[in-house]
Specification:
204 residues; mainly beta; Jelly Rolls; eight-stranded antiparallel beta sheet; UCP022704; DUF1349; ConA-like_dom_sf
């Protein structure tokens, strides 16, 4: 895997406070920041801080370790592919209460979000993520040790044509603030291998 070069990162929106280096990135969130579009809740939030790299590479994997001490409902931090307000994906742990958190992902296409989650213990304060791209398709994985990764989901972003942006985000949808720490970042060869099962349907 190649070294992660922080100097190439660009802010879409800045957090309350932050620090950026090749070894560590921190973000301290502002209250009432989030990413969500329409579905079920019928509101639109598009003000979470996002820090990303741009690339035209269609096949790659991005790995990062997140550390956090969130204690308020919905606080979250993780990986993101943010193209514009209506087209993006994210994966994170979202704090719920003193007992559980939601480990999950959101995919937003054409202004509508979905949310896929599983419950994990609230005591977990570290998580690794691996984001892999194959064209317009993406794979999200998580790991508690940075070695053994488990698939969270495979998804498609309609707007992920050629050049995209990907990276990190953190937010606090309610009246709270916390600091997220990102380390062990790398970008390199795609770890999501080409499918070797059923052949694609032939075009008619």
């Amino acid at each position: 895997m190649e070294q992660f070069i922080a100097a190439n990162l660009k802010w879409t929106r800045e957090p309350d406070r932050y620090s950026v280096s090749d070894e560590e990135i921190t973000m301290t969130t502002l209250p009432h920041t989030d990413l969500w579009q329409r579905t079920y809740y019928h509101f639109r939030n598009d003000n979470a801080p996002v820090l990303q790299l741009e690339t035209e590479e269609e096949y790659f994997s991005f790995v990062v370790k997140t550390e956090f001490d969130s204690k308020h409902r919905f606080d979250q931090c993780g990986v993101v592919v943010y193209l514009d307000s209506d087209n993006w994906l994210k994966a994170s742990i979202e704090y719920e209460n003193e007992t559980i958190q939601h480990l999950g992902s959101v995919v937003t296409n054409q202004g509508y979000s979905d949310w896929a989650t599983t419950e994990i213990a609230a005591s977990i304060k570290e998580m690794w993520y691996r984001l892999s791209r194959r064209g317009q398709d993406f794979r999200l994985e998580c790991s508690t040790d940075g070695k053994q990764f488990q698939q969270m989901r495979i998804c498609h972003l309609h707007a992920a044509n050629a050049r995209i942006s990907f990276g990190l985000y953190a937010c606090s949808p309610e009246a709270s603030s916390f600091t997220a720490r990102f380390t062990d970042m790398s970008v390199g060869e795609c770890q999501w291998l080409a499918h070797d099962g059923q052949a694609p349907d032939e075009l008619v």
